[in-house]
């Protein structure tokens, strides 16, 4: 069996460079192209016909589930492995309903990514939606706790700091707007602030989000 041809899709150049170096060091994988946007990923898939696309689920120009569907429509034999910084059951379910082969979080570490890729090379079947949902609990256990807020609350904070409304945050994270409001209220209680403006300001001061972070 020859090396598996991989397309890297992430809007951060440093992430793509790190993945390329890692895959080359592991052996058995050849990075045939990169894409910094969903639109470019679609063009690269048509041009290069890779075996697998490793895709960030939150691209700036396209929702992750929409991108999965369009990639698979452009190249039906493609395997889409989602590698995302966001871990929620809703996002995992959305990815797999869209046809993603596997969902791995960046915080789960390189061993988890390598395990998924080796499963793919060995011909293992894609996860069902229910199997994919169980990934959330396991990868939560692998992810270090680095702040006084939950992973999902941290995601809500980042998007609130970027100026998104509760509705827009819900659309990005595949959450009901009422769930976003619940998280915002819990965060205000945790950080002892009165409104969203104070919440974002205190989160930045405490290092929970970065004012210059690219989202």
Automatic annotation (TrEMBL):
<keyword id="KW-0238">DNA-binding</keyword>
<keyword id="KW-0804">Transcription</keyword>
<dbReference type="InterPro" id="IPR058245">
    <property type="entry name" value="NreC/VraR/RcsB-like_REC"/>
</dbReference>
<dbReference type="Pfam" id="PF00072">
    <property type="entry name" value="Response_reg"/>
</dbReference>
<feature type="domain" description="Response regulatory">
    <location>
        <begin position="5"/>
        <end position="121"/>
    </location>
</feature>
<dbReference type="InterPro" id="IPR016032">
    <property type="entry name" value="Sig_transdc_resp-reg_C-effctor"/>
</dbReference>
<dbReference type="Pfam" id="PF00196">
    <property type="entry name" value="GerE"/>
</dbReference>
<dbReference type="InterPro" id="IPR039420">
    <property type="entry name" value="WalR-like"/>
</dbReference>
<dbReference type="GO" id="GO:0006355">
    <property type="term" value="P:regulation of DNA-templated transcription"/>
</dbReference>
<keyword id="KW-0597">Phosphoprotein</keyword>
<keyword id="KW-0805">Transcription regulation</keyword>
<feature type="modified residue" description="4-aspartylphosphate">
    <location>
        <position position="56"/>
    </location>
</feature>
<dbReference type="InterPro" id="IPR011006">
    <property type="entry name" value="CheY-like_superfamily"/>
</dbReference>
<dbReference type="InterPro" id="IPR001789">
    <property type="entry name" value="Sig_transdc_resp-reg_receiver"/>
</dbReference>
<dbReference type="InterPro" id="IPR036388">
    <property type="entry name" value="WH-like_DNA-bd_sf"/>
</dbReference>
<protein>
    <submittedName>
        <fullName>Response regulator transcription factor</fullName>
    </submittedName>
</protein>
<dbReference type="GO" id="GO:0000160">
    <property type="term" value="P:phosphorelay signal transduction system"/>
</dbReference>
<dbReference type="GO" id="GO:0003677">
    <property type="term" value="F:DNA binding"/>
</dbReference>
<feature type="domain" description="HTH luxR-type">
    <location>
        <begin position="135"/>
        <end position="207"/>
    </location>
</feature>
<dbReference type="InterPro" id="IPR000792">
    <property type="entry name" value="Tscrpt_reg_LuxR_C"/>
</dbReference>
């Amino acid at each position: 069996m020859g090396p598996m041809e991989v397309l890297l899709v992430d809007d951060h150049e440093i992430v793509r460079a790190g993945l390329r170096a890692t895959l080359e060091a592991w052996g058995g994988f050849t990075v045939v192209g990169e894409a910094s946007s969903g639109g470019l990923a679609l063009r690269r898939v048509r041009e290069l016909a890779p075996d697998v696309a490793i895709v960030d689920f939150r691209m700036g120009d396209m929702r992750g589930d929409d991108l999965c569907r369009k990639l698979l429509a452009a190249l039906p034999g493609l395997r889409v492995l989602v590698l995302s910084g966001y871990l929620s059951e809703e996002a995992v379910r959305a990815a797999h309903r869209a046809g993603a082969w596997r969902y791995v979080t960046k915080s789960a570490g390189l061993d988890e990514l390598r395990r998924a890729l080796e499963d793919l090379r060995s011909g293992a079947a894609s996860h069902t939606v229910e199997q994919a949902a169980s990934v959330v609990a396991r990868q939560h256990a692998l992810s270090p706790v680095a702040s006084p807020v939950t992973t999902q609350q941290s995601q809500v904070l980042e998007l609130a700091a970027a100026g998104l409304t509760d509705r827009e945050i819900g659309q990005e994270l595949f959450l009901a707007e009422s769930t976003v409001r619940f998280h915002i209220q819990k965060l205000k209680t945790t950080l002892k602030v009165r409104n969203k403006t104070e919440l974002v300001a205190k989160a930045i001061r405490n290092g929970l989000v970065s004012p210059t972070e690219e989202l």
